[in-house]
Amino acid sequence: MTVLEAAAPDLAAHESRNGPIPWGRDVVGDLAAAGLTGRGGAGFPAARKLAGMKPGGVVIANGAEGEPASRKDHTLLSVAPHLVLDGLQLVAEAAGAREVCCYVSPRSAMAVRTALAERREWDARPVRVVVAPETFLAGQESAVIAAVEGRRAVPADRLRPGVHSGYLVQNVETLAHVAQIVRYGPAWFRSRGTADEPGTFLATVGGAVRSPGVYEVPFGTPLPVLLDKAGGAGPLRAVLVGGYHGAWMAPDVTLSRAAAGSLGAGVVVALGAADCGLQAAARIGDYLARESARQCGPCRNGLPALAGVLSGLAAGDAELARGAGALASLVEGRGACHHPDGTARFVRSTVRMFADEIARHGRGECVARR
Predict the structure, then answer these.
(1) Residue of 178, 160, 214, 173 lying closest to 86 (CA atoms)
(2) Where are the domains of the chain?
(3) For a surface tag, which of 62, 109, 143, 244 has the fewest beta carbons within 10 Å of its beta carbon?
(4) pLDDT of residue 338
């Protein structure tokens, strides 16, 4: 069963549908053979991350979901919490963890606590629940570690992976896939998706679709197929793929990292043909600037400047497009975390995708006022 097919409302139903935790398997070997990559946004190979852990560390399930357009983690923790917790136990066992934590958004905390209360005789290791603040950066790996340690949930050194500090942070969707890979085997997992990007992923589909929601599809799925699963859409101007740190794409793109670049946390937002991409981008740019941790120059100064470019383009100052790329280059790779990089990616894609709309706004016109 895929992740959503395995959903169960309580432990009894979960055991009936999925069976007990499959202890005793070579978890690292299964994940390596399956080719599972992280579903939190970075797409790092799960086996390599787990293999890099030394015994005695801390394993954390990350369900903070700070991305405003994403609902997949909350949905998963609501309908299949035991699948996530099975995966967490398996990874903790393979890592020889001394502590296990589940770091979740406030809206998901009750579902997780309820599930854990059912599992007291089921789990090999106790799980501590840590509630994340509702901020965009709260789910970034080093921010997760800080929160679990009792500090403010803001990113730290971007150059030092958590495994080097004795922490293994895995997205809750990644853990749900771990549980099913260990149950059914790598070949089962690879029967969906593509050779280079095997398996399925959860996509939060929103915007100009008839049935917004969370859908599970294989990698390599054409975007129109996913939109059809969400009830279909009318004529579209563009689609934001990967969330607020993603990029605007044509509506016919294939959902793979090779074709679409970063899929991020699986967010897909459809922009209708009568909706203004510049206005939408300006709202997102303003949000990203406000959600900065303000720990470095690129965040304190660069992100408000990039947000100003997007607001200016929406207001009709088409000349700002000429310097947008250079301004983005000033923040890329220079921040304390990857927030400036993601924001720069989003700004570049806005200028590229909506070049005609920039010219239209420069003439005092707008597609939304046709």
Answers:
(1) 178
(2) 11-188, 204-272, 277-369
(3) 109
(4) 86
Query: If one looks up domain 277-369 in CATH, what number appears?
Result: 1.20.1440.230
**d(C-alpha 316, C-alpha 328), whole Å:** 20
Overall pTM > 0.90: yes
Q: State which amino acid sits at residue 189.
A: F
Q: Answer whether 263's CB lies under 8 Å from 257's CB.
A: yes
How many residues are recorded in the chain? 370
pLDDT per residue as tens digits for the range 205-216 = 999 999 999 999
CA-CA distance, 220 to 201, in Å (whole number)?
Answer: 10
CA distance 117 to 127: 10
Which pLDDT score, from 0 to 100, does residue 256 have?
74
Residues 6+ apart with CB under 8 A from 349: 246, 247, 248, 249
3.60.140.10, 3.40.50.11540, 3.40.50.2000, 3.60.15.10: which CATH number matches 11-188? 3.40.50.11540
Tell me if the domain spanning 204-272 has CATH number 3.40.50.920.
Answer: no
SS3 letters across 239-295:
EEECHHHCEEECCCCEECHHHHCCCCCCEEEEEECCCCHHHHHHHHHHHHHHCCCCC
| Cβ proximity of 43 and 198 under 8 Å | no
Under the banding of pLDDT at 50, 70 and 90, the label for residue 347 is very high
DSSP classification of residue 369: G
d(CA 67, CA 244) in angstroms, rounded, equals 7
Nearest Cα neighbor of 317 from 282, 342, 286 is 282
How far from the centroid of its chain's Cα atoms is residue 199's Cα? 16
Q: Quick one: tokens of 333?
A: 């790779």
Strand order across the beta sheet in which 99-104 lies: 128-131, 99-104, 58-63, 167-171
Q: Is the C-alpha dihedral spanning 60, 64, 70, 72 positive or negative?
A: positive
Question: What is the DSSP code string of 186-245?
Answer: HHHHHTSB-SSSBSEEEEEEEES-SS-EEEEEETTEEHHHHHHHTT--SSEEEEEESGGG
